[in-house]
Amino acid sequence: MDLSPELRAGSSPPSRALYWHYLQCSDQGRTATGAILEGNWKLIEFFEDGHLELYDLKEDPGERLNLAPTLSDRAAEMHAKLVEWRKSVGALPPVPDYNNSVTPDGVPVLLDRAQRLRQTKTGCIAD
Asked: What gap in Å lies between CA 71 and CA 112, rounded to an integer?
């Protein structure tokens, strides 16, 4: 599905909320997140530490100013919609690595779905 016409500068925001659920962590710094795009607003939930980021894409298309601390009611409302959507589609939550791996910053490593499916009862990742 090509959403680019709806997301181009100058076009109206999508007419319905769009949701993302991304569990794939990578060595390029990508972390497991969920997100909702509703009108001009985008909320991102970072699963590793639970923090939220909220952006007004009309005013800040580069997502430089996180408004979640100052617009906490809007962030909470959008987060509730994101959580409800995840429940409605049966999205799997990320789970901690049973080997207690952490990033260099000390943040617990989360497993993506493929890793979780390969994980054995002993807590090791099967090759």
From this structure: 30
